[in-house]
C-alpha cells in the first residue's frame, strides 16, 4: 500500500516537473519566435545605412561623453549609431531621446566599463577572486548592475575573464588570476549577478565577456603584444572561463586586440565562427574592442576597408569606435567583399540584444532618476563593499602575531597611500574621491575607536623614478582622476617627517604599493617591485625596531622577497574600493579574521615569469644535487607565495586524506575527506582546496589542477570533516585531437591550504 502511494507521488512529481520544463521550454521558444518576428519585421523596414548604424558603436571622445553626450545627437538622430557609452543620467537620457527622434526610433544600447562597481566600488576583480566566495562576487555584480541600470546603462563590458600568468601585465587587476577552473566559477557568478534571471527587468544589464580571446597571454606582459600559444594550452588553460561565461548565458562578447595563430582575434574566423558559434553555439552578439578593427591595419592585414570586411566575415557584429563598418561596408557590399546576409546577421543579433533588454517596450527602461537617487552609493551597497573588501584581503605574513592590532595605544600610519582615496579604487572607475568613504588613516580611526591615537605622514612619493612618473601623469590618468601629487620636499625630508611622527608610536602601519594608474590597461611594468622611494621609507621605518605592518595597496602580484624577509607582517589589500579604508582596518584590528587566498602566484623575481602552479613537469624535475635539472643558479624555482596561499589569525591542521575507494570504474563517484582542525585561538575560515593530478596520460598533463574547494568556518579547537565528491568530469581534458574526455589510469588527489602545501593520495579510475 505504502509503496503504491509512494509510486503515485513520484509519478505526480515527475509529471509536474515535466510540465514545468515543457512550459518553460515553450515559453522560451514562443518568446524567441516573437522576437524573431519583431526583429525580422523591423529589419524589413530598414535601409542599408540604418542597418550599418545599428552595428556601429560610437562614444565620441571620452571627455565629451562625461561632459554631456559626446556631441553625437545629430548622428544618433540620423540612425548612424546603434550603441554608445555614458555615465551620467542626463547624458544617457539625451542620447536615448535623440534615438527616439530617428526614423525608426530604435533605442540605443548604452555600454560602459562597469568592471567592479558603478558608483559603489568593490575591490578590483583580482581582489574579488581572492575571496573564494562566489556568492559575494555575484552580489558585487548584482549591486553594480542595480546602480548602473538606474543611471541608464544596460550593457557592461564585463566580466574580463582573461587568464594570465604574467603579473607584468597591468590588466591582471581586471581578471581572476591564473586558474581556469576558478576563473570559470567567477565568470559564471558575475554573469548571474549582472543578468539575473530576466534581462528585460530594469535592474539587470547585459554582460559582455572579454576579451575573446587569450588577451592575458601577451608576450612579456606588455599590453597589446603578440600572443602565441598551442591549441592544447588554449583549450585546457585559457578558453575555459570564456566558455563557462557563454554557457551561463552571457548576452555578448568582446573581441580581443591580440593575434591568435597570427590572425587578430577581431578578424579570426576560426575563433569567432568555428569555435564561438559552431562549437560553443553562442547566440549573442560580438562587439570589437575599442578600435580593434582599425588596429588590424597595424597588424598587417590591410586598409580599413579590407579589415572591416574581414572582421564582419569573421563573425564580428559591432564595430566599437572604429567607423570601419559604418564607413566602408557599403562599398564592400557593392564590390562583393561582404554580402547582405553578413550585414543582416550582425544587425539582427544587435537588435535581438535590444529586444532581450526590453528596450523596444520602453527605451527608458534603464533610466530611473528616483531609483538612481536611492541606489547610487546606498548605505547597504557600501556595507557590502566593506564586507567584500575584507574578504578579498590576503594575509601574506604574520610573524610573532604582530597582527591583529590592539585597539589602544599610538599607531603611526605612514606612506603615500595612507591618506589616499582615489587610489583605493583601482582601474576603470568613472568616479573618484566622492565614492570613497574613508582613507586607510580614517578607517583606522573609525575602527580603532577612542583609545587609539593615530598619527600620519606621507613619508615618500609613490615613485621618484622619472621614467615611471612620466607614465603616471598621462592626460588619460589625469582624466580618470588619478593625479600625481606634486611634492616640493626632498625624499629625505619626507622620511624624516615619517620617523618623527612614528617616534613614540607603538606600531607602524606602512601603506605602500601602487597608485591606481600603475595597473590596468596600458599599465604594464617590467619591474614589479615596490618603487624605490617607498622601499627607502620602509627600510628607515624598520630601523626604528618598532613592529611594522606593511599594508599593500596594488593591482598585481609584486616581487616582495626583501619585504617578506624583513617586515614582520604583510597584508595584501589590493585596490579595495569605496569601503577599502574601513575594511583594511577591520582586518588589521581582527574584527574580521582574514581568509583570502591568492589566485595568482607571487614570483620571487621577474626572471621567473611565467611562474604558475598548474605547470607541466619537465623531463628533468628540480633536484638540488643534480646540476642538469630544471632550475636557476641564483634563485629557487618555487615562487615567493604560491597560488592558493593565504594566512589567518588562527591556524589550521589538515588530517590525512581518506578516500571511499582507491579503485573506481565508469561513472562511479569518489569521496575524498580530510579532517580540518582549528588549532589556534580564534574563530576563522579556511579555503580547503582540492587538486587533481594525472601523471600518466596521452599528453603531458599539469602536475596538479584545482578542481574544487570549500570555505569552512571553525571555532577555536573545532574539528570538521570536509568531504569532496569527485566525478569523471573532474578528470577531463582536451587531448591531442582536441577531444574533451578522460583517460583510464592512475591519478593523484591533493587536499590542502594552498597549491604548494597539500596532503596527497592516489587512486585508479578505469572506464
Ligand atoms: C579596453 C576594453 C574596454 C573598452 C571600452 C578598451 O580599450 O580594452 O576592456 O571595455 O576599451 O572602454
Tally the beta strands.
Answer: 27
CATH superfamily of the largest domain: Glycoside hydrolase, family 3, N-terminal domain
CATH class of the largest domain: Alpha Beta
Range of strand content: 15-25%
Task: Tell me the overall shape.
Answer: globular
Low-confidence residue ranges:
none
| Largest beta-sheet details | 6 strands, parallel
Helical residues, percent: 25-40%
CATH architecture of the largest domain: Alpha-Beta Barrel
Distance between the termini: 41 Å
Listed once per kind, the bound small molecules are: beta-D-glucopyranose
CATH topology of the largest domain: TIM Barrel
Number of helices: 24
What topology, given as strand order, has the largest sheet? 2-3-4-5-6-9
The tally of domains stands at 4
Rg:
27 Å
How confident overall, as mean pLDDT? Answer: 94
Task: Tell me the structural class.
Answer: alpha/beta
